[in-house]
Amino acid sequence: MLAMQHSNSSGITASSPPSNHTIMVQVPEVEAVANNTTLSNPTAAGLTMTLGILFNVVALFILAKAYNRFRRRSKATFLLFASSLVATDLAGHVINGALVLRRYSTPDTASGSKSGYADPDSSCLFLGSCMVFFGLCPLFLGCAMAAERCLGVTKPLLHARLVTTARTKVALTLVWLLALFVALLPFFGLGAYTSQYPWTWCFIRVIGDVKGIDLAFMIMFSGLALSSLALAFVCNTISGITLLKARLKKRTYSHRCSARSHDTEMVVQLVGIMVTSCICWSPLLVFGLMSAIQSYSGSLGSDQDTYRGLMVTAVRMATCNQILDPWVYILLRRAILRRIYHITKRQASFNGSRFHTIRWEVSSFQNSEKHSVNKI
């Protein structure tokens, strides 16, 4: 996914080739620009990979420490899901980053053709399947976490009876297997992976010679991902409304307040995960689907370079998801949220006291004026 750093800094020059001869002239020019700009400077990709690994390791350490502290509480299930999500992000960052850096070092790795239409090599197929697998896994896990918290907030007794550590591990295994099943479908004839501009990353064939089976695979990928985001939104909304109603009822039992505090922390983190995933993944899902539909219908035409540029921008944003996810757990912890709350409250109190002081001074001045006029 580190392909987000591999884009041609000068952009892609859109052109409308009138003939096959023009195509033969234009494509090598684009390829030459891409090769000169993307293969000569892998520093940005390496730096992004290093930062992503560092952030994920820090978040994983924080979650592991919290899991040991809350192992016998309801929060343990959430922490197990969260740890699995961060571990998956870390693995995706390392594996995809290593494959992309390898394609940096071997310019001719895309089967001798940088146009993306030739049959990809084994490394491109593996990178494409990793892109799909490590793309779906965080979205599926975020959806599963939102559903688990929704059940825990709305039906705590049912949650305590149904949700156990063993069942959570089974659910995690099923999530990974489902994502792996989807990623391996092109190896059984459903869809295909190809090299993508600027030929340093591989993904589902959405531009070029798109067949009906490619379009079906892209629809499946986008449909599963967008459905996960939608379901997570519904579950988080229900959880947030339930917690808000409980807050308004002002329950005073200390143990209940402590439980609600933990629930609020987890829901806030889930909302952060959902918002991050929506912002980072929606462009790739939408632009990829649009590109596949336009290519299959034959109406892409001269907009091919534009859609290539959109895909590069979209994969950049998708890569940011693996870097931003750890910060959700680092920054949206209860201790950090409580500190922010106290600082905000203190600032509001300070502003309020200043407002009351100004009002007192004005009223005192008005009273002194009235007293002076009466004396006169």
Automatic annotation (TrEMBL):
**Molecular-function GO terms, alphabetical:** prostaglandin E receptor activity; thromboxane receptor activity
Gene name for this UniProt entry: LOC115048146
A biological-process GO annotation: adenylate cyclase-activating G protein-coupled receptor signaling pathway
Q: Could you tell me what this protein is called?
A: Thromboxane A2 receptor
The membrane topology term of the UniProt record is: Multi-pass membrane protein
The residue ranges crossing the membrane are: 44-64, 76-95, 125-147, 168-195, 215-246, 267-290, 310-332
Q: Which Pfam families match?
A: 7tm_1
Record's keyword terms, sorted: Cell membrane, G-protein coupled receptor, Glycoprotein, Membrane, Receptor, Transducer, Transmembrane, Transmembrane helix
Which Gene Ontology cellular component terms are annotated?
plasma membrane
Predominant place of localization = membrane
Q: Which Gene3D superfamilies match?
A: Rhodopsin 7-helix transmembrane proteins
Location of the G-protein coupled receptors family 1 profile domain: 55-329
Q: Where in the cell is it found?
A: Cell membrane
The UniProt entry, under CDD domains, shows:
7tmA_PGE2_EP1 (cd15144)
Q: What is the lineage of its organism?
A: Eukaryota, Metazoa, Chordata, Craniata, Vertebrata
Listed InterPro entries: GPCR_Rhodpsn, GPCR_Rhodpsn_7TM, Prostanoid_rcpt, Thbox_rcpt
Q: Does the keyword Glycoprotein apply?
A: yes
